[in-house]
Amino acid sequence: MCPVPAPLARACKHKENILDKTFLVGKYRISPQSKQTESGAYAASLSIRSGHGSGSHDRIFRFVPQFDSNEAALQYALAQSQGLIGGSNC
């Protein structure tokens, strides 16, 4: 189940221990990610991209909290994106 509304979901790619969901919000391409660590917990990260070609920016945020599930990590990254886009200078 995607943590973002279906109209916003651009792609869902399944990789080993990684679930990547990318969607657009205005001029930003948002990619919340979750990766299972060696300890079995899940770590959340977030990519916020803007621009095209050589004029593009990509900011990667890795978050300290670890989660019991993949979905919880993705939800956390998604929640963080809402605050970062509003105050971001990407």
Automatic annotation (TrEMBL):
Record-given protein name: Uncharacterized protein
Biological classification of the source: Bacteria, Pseudomonadati, Pseudomonadota, Betaproteobacteria, Burkholderiales
